[in-house]
Design a protein that fits this description.
Strand order of the largest sheet: 11-12-13-10-6-9-8-7-14
CATH topology: 2,3-Dihydroxybiphenyl 1,2-Dioxygenase, domain 1
CATH class: Alpha Beta
Order of helices and strands: HEEEEEHEHEEEEHEEEHE
Structural class: alpha+beta
Helix content: 10-25%
Radius of gyration: 17 Å
Number of domains: 1
Number of strands: 14
Shape: globular
Distance between the termini: 41 Å
Length: about 240
């Protein structure tokens, strides 16, 4: 496999029992393996852990569980590959991964997460471009261009958002090209949310590519998004 699409697919879909190979990733440079658990971040102070049963946010009670019937392939690699391949571009890379869940209270939840992160070697940031009225986007990790990043999406209860895992990828496609290629291969309903920044345009399109008890979400960055600019805009908490 030599194309950029195949490379990013390999990066995202490593078996969790074989994630020691993830030191080859362009973005996640610090991923460690212990039995069947993959940890993102510092080995002694992981940001989060993925295993075949679900996702754990370090040092919290949050565990997004994957049903037993889906654990053989919790990332639905077949569907993920079809989505990535459909984009047909040579410039594609993994920006970050993350999870989303609805807390009892967003502000309280963020304070709890800040307290946990401050006890580790990691830093915590917020994306000021997020829809703050009903959702907050928190990032943990390294904001340098190729540093490992993990996102936590915290929506208000009124949004009825299902718990999810997400993979955010960068591409050189225009907003219309992203929409056209996904619609052509998966229908008009797969992409269900766009981030349109005034004065910039549609920098990100999002959709659910599978459900394994969790919604498996893919976020597709367009050529209007700059990884460097986005990371520099993050505000440390």
């Amino acid at each position: 496999m030599n194309t950029a699409s195949e490379k990013i697919y390999q990066n995202i879909t490593q078996n969790l029992t074989d994630v020691a190979r993830l030191d080859l990733w362009d973005i996640w440079k610090y991923v460690y393996i212990s039995q069947d658990i993959a940890s993102i971040g510092n080995k002694k102070n992981p940001i989060a852990s993925f295993c075949t049963t679900g996702v754990f946010l370090a040092n919290t009670d949050h565990h997004l569980e994957i049903p037993e019937s889906q654990r053989e392939d919790p990332l639905r690699r077949d569907m993920l590959w079809q989505v990535i391949k459909s984009l047909e571009t040579n410039k594609i890379s993994l920006n970050h991964a993350g999870i989303g869940y609805t807390p009892e209270n967003i502000d309280t939840e963020i304070e709890k997460i800040i307290g946990i992160v401050k006890q580790s070697t990691h830093k915590i940031y917020e994306d000021p471009t997020g829809p703050e009225a009903d959702m907050r986007w928190v990032f943990i990790g390294d904001t340098t261009d190729h540093g490992p990043m993990f996102e936590i999406v915290l929506p208000e209860k009124k949004l009825n958002m299902r718990p999810h895992m997400q993979f955010d990828i960068d591409t050189d496609l225009s907003p219309d090209e992203v929409q056209e290629r996904i619609s052509e291969n998966f229908g008009d309903d797969m992409l269900d949310w766009d981030l349109d920044i005034p004065g910039v345009g549609r920098v990100l399109s999002m959709g659910t590519y599978a459900n394994t008890g969790l919604d498996m979400r893919i976020w597709i960055g367009t050529n209007l998004r700059s990884r460097k600019t986005h990371r520099e805009s993050l505000v440390e908490l």
